[in-house]
Design a protein that fits this description.
The protein is α+β, with helices and mostly antiparallel strands and about 260 residues long. Helix content is about 25%, strand content about 30%. The protein folds into two domains: about 200 residues, Bira Bifunctional Protein, Domain 2 (BirA Bifunctional Protein, domain 2), CATH 3.30.930.10; about 50 residues, Roll (SH3 type barrels), CATH 2.30.30.100. It is built from six helices and 14 strands.
């Protein structure tokens, strides 16, 4: 199976008929070059944030991972990689749905009309030499086969093409955008302000200005207004109960709606 658009932006494209996890495969691979990309339309053991399982529909969803060699990026700037991956994926999806309501929920969930169409997971190699960023994108999954009630797919919002064609289009644009953003961050030696990373995330993060509930690691929850993304990439939330500001480095965010 050929993916010509993706092959044009990656120095090494590996297409797997099926696998448990493209992230696990690429993390274990040796000597892969910067921007090496592994993909499948049949992943059986994908992982999401906080150790959750990421389910994909065989033949109707894309699972792909890209390897980013650290190069000049300081270790303490690597937290920007998953955020920039979300910005790049939002742009990629928007390119396929130019009239759609495509938004980015902090840190990097891509939504269409409020439904999750893509999740991303970044994992650091043990020697900190590279980051592997994985993406799961619902391509042509019909409404009755979506993995969760809050999920959606590109096909449900009018994206034209087969799952194979949509996978090639969304993957190539994502890898290209991510490569550009990470190169800018590396050129600025990890400075999120100078590289434009902070501005990109603030501009495209639809969580800002929303009332949110953040499920924090350990089981606590924070309810309030998301007011900023700080220079470390953390979501800053003003507590509804105390008015105090809390910078959140990780957690599951729900956008609250009040009728």
């Amino acid at each position: 199976m050929d993916f010509p658009l993706s092959a044009s932006v990656s120095p090494r494209l590996v297409v797997l008929e099926s696998t448990g996890s493209t992230n696990a495969d690429l993390l274990a691979a040796v000597d892969e070059p910067h921007l090496a990309t592994w993909l499948t339309l049949d992943q059986s053991a994908g992982r999401g944030r906080l150790g959750r399982r990421w389910e994909t529909a065989p033949g109707r969803s894309l699972a792909a991972s890209v390897l980013l060699r650290r190069g000049d990026l300081p270790v303490d700037s690597l937290g920007w990689v998953p955020l920039l991956a979300g910005v790049a994926m939002r742009a990629s999806v928007r390119g396929l749905l130019p009239g759609g309501d495509v938004t980015l929920k902090w840190p990097n969930d891509v939504q269409v009309a409020g439904g999750k169409v893509c999740g991303l997971l970044a994992e650091l190699r043990p020697d900190a030499s590279a980051v592997v960023v994985g993406a799961g994108v619902n391509l042509t999954v019909p409404a009755g086969e979506l993995p969760t009630p809050t999920s959606t797919s590109l096909g449900l919002h009018g994206a034209r093409g087969t799952a194979h064609e949509l996978a090639d289009a969304v993957l190539s644009a994502w890898v290209s955008g991510l490569a550009r953003f990470v190169a800018d961050l590396a050129a600025a030696r990890g400075d999120a302000v100078a590289s434009g990373a902070l501005s990109l995330v603030r501009t495209h993060c639809a969580t800002l200005g929303r009332d949110v509930r953040v499920e924090l690691p350990g089981g606590a929850a924070l309810v309030g207004e998301a007011v900023d993304v700080d220079e470390a990439g953390r979501l800053v939330v003003r507590s509804a109960s105390t008015g105090g500001l809390t910078a959140v480095a990780s957690g599951d965010v729900t956008h609250l709606r009040y009728e």
